[in-house]
Design brief:
globular; alpha/beta; single chain; six-stranded mixed beta sheet
Length: 288
């Protein structure tokens, strides 16, 4: 299967979820990509004051979700996600197949970054579109390889990292992104913010990498959309050449838990069901 992905490096309107949803919906109509990937916190703008905009944000998410069903396309977009009195820094995967989310697990509290006020996520998440699984992580998460590695072991063909990465972090992202793609022998989409926001200058440089870590599309430092095709036949060929996933030693207690030889791969279908259970909205059902 061949599918076109679009990485959308655009500056959101701070504190205006409705306007940002309109931008996403417009691109769903105009862009020839089947899956559009937006940066971290795009629905509200990175660092925006979240007080009083929960309802508008959730309505904006429903608007984009409905548009995905109308167009038959999918969107990955960063957004705060409220649950009770807590709020998490999340990635949403909105798809005709059902909506899913991932809550950022590793909150940045160093240097120029501060995510005080957000609650940490507690597990992995994947989205699905036309039978293809998408692994998810948010910005600083990409420096913790087990997140996307786990998604790839569970069948993800494409991994996504949405980010709000400032110019100070660019050398580190340039180093780690090819490694994340190659070690998982998976396509990788990196969608970063661009321009000045929350006192930081975002470096942009969003890109799509192939399973060997080679950049196949990139955005540079301005507002733009870059697209590239993914090919599941080529992915299978890459994985026959580089057997990183097939040769993973799940019988070894790497992270403090010992599992049987079948390990993660043996529980693959159970894990996929749990990670793509469409907790925002089930297939065709009402938003909640």
């Amino acid at each position: 299967m061949i599918m076109r992905l679009g990485v959308c490096q655009l500056a959101p309107a701070a504190g205006d979820p409705s306007r940002n949803a309109e931008t996403v919906c417009r691109l769903l109509d105009e862009c020839d990509a089947e899956v559009l990937v937006f940066p971290e916190s795009f629905m509200t703008g990175y660092g925006a004051d979240l007080a009083g905009i929960r309802e508008e944000t959730e309505n904006a998410i429903s608007m984009v979700s409905d548009k995905c069903r109308e167009t038959g396309k999918a969107v990955s977009v960063g957004s705060p996600r409220w649950s009770g009195d807590s709020v998490r820094n999340s990635m949403l995967f909105l798809s005709p197949d059902g909506d899913s989310f991932y809550d950022k697990s590793h909150l940045a509290r160093f240097g120029v970054y501060s995510e005080d006020g957000f609650e940490e996520g507690q597990g992995p998440g994947m989205g699905t579109y036309r039978g293809i699984l998408f692994g998810m992580c948010v910005c600083y998460d990409v420096f913790f390889p087990e997140i996307l590695h786990g998604c790839s072991l569970r069948g993800a063909s494409v991994n996504i990292c949405c980010a709000a990465s400032a110019v100070q972090s660019k050398p580190f992202l340039d180093a780690v992104l090819p490694a994340r793609a190659l070690e998982n022998v998976s396509y990788l989409v990196y969608s970063n913010n661009v321009g000045r926001m929350n006192g930081l200058e975002m470096h942009g440089c969003s890109r799509i990498l192939d399973p060997f870590g080679r950049t196949v599309a990139e955005c540079g430092t301005g507002e733009t959309v870059a697209t590239a095709e993914i090919d599941t036949d080529f992915l299978a060929e890459c994985r026959r050449t580089r057997r990183h996933l097939e040769d993973y030693r799940s019988d070894v207690e790497w992270l403090g838990r010992r599992r049987g030889r079948t390990g993660l791969l043996g529980d693959r279908q159970k894990s996929i069901n749990a990670m793509t259970k469409s907790p925002i909205r089930s297939r065709g059902g009402p938003a909640r």
